[in-house]
Amino acid sequence: MHQPLDVPTAILQRRSIKTFKSDPIPDELLHKLVELTVAAPSSWNLQDWRIVVVREPEQKAALQAAAFNQTMVTQAPVTFVFAADAYAWQEGLDRIFTQALESGAWNEGTVGYFKNAIPGFQTKLGDKNREYAVKDAMIAATHLVLAAESLGLSTCFMNGWSEDMVKAVIGAGDNPNLAIACLVPVGYAADPRQNPGRLPLEVNVSLDRLDNPYQA
Length: 216
Ligand SMILES: Cc1cc2nc3c(=O)[nH]c(=O)nc-3n(C[C@H](O)[C@H](O)[C@H](O)COP(=O)(O)O)c2cc1C
Hints:
Number of strands: 4
Shape: globular
Bound molecules: flavin mononucleotide
Structural class: alpha+beta
Helix content: 40-55%
């Protein structure tokens, strides 16, 4: 197997790839990618992403149609859909608590606190429950993208799609609590792409306050 790239190398080498070879991703490698994706952290460890690995040609074709016909969705052997369940915290907390208690990561005191703190915090979020779930899903997607790069694969984050259409393709119907965060085709690059560059640090990085541009 490809010798994994270290994290800084993967970060700097990654490009948004728009054309893919039809070569499939071996099952074992795909499984590894999925494991590394869900190793991402999430708020309260809610793991409120809902990830659909789209591999069937018909499903990919439907997804491409939902993504303004961007062809990388069908060219890539697999396209991940990162959805986010805005109210995952209303169910399934017990399972998260049990796991952390069993591993010894959290003690009874921590779990006792979380039992009240999580519903309290999330209830106060109101409309922002969706935004917070999407944050978690985007962090998981970032793990996928960097893991894929490290393991010899290429990707492209995608925002260009119709949410309702993507939801229909993955079978989410019109569930209002399920948000689509992004799509990520994954596969072997057909054509390289150049780095379009990044702005000088002082444009969008500050020290202590926004009005104090960061200078190395
Ligand atoms: C959240 C997000 C959504 C994006 N959506 C699309 C997309 O729908 N289609 C596309 O061709 N590129 C998309 N891109 C790729 C960006 O254009 C690309 O990341 C940017 O030009 C920088 O290039 P680089 O990724 O090679 O560094 C997206 C990138 C991000 C981070």
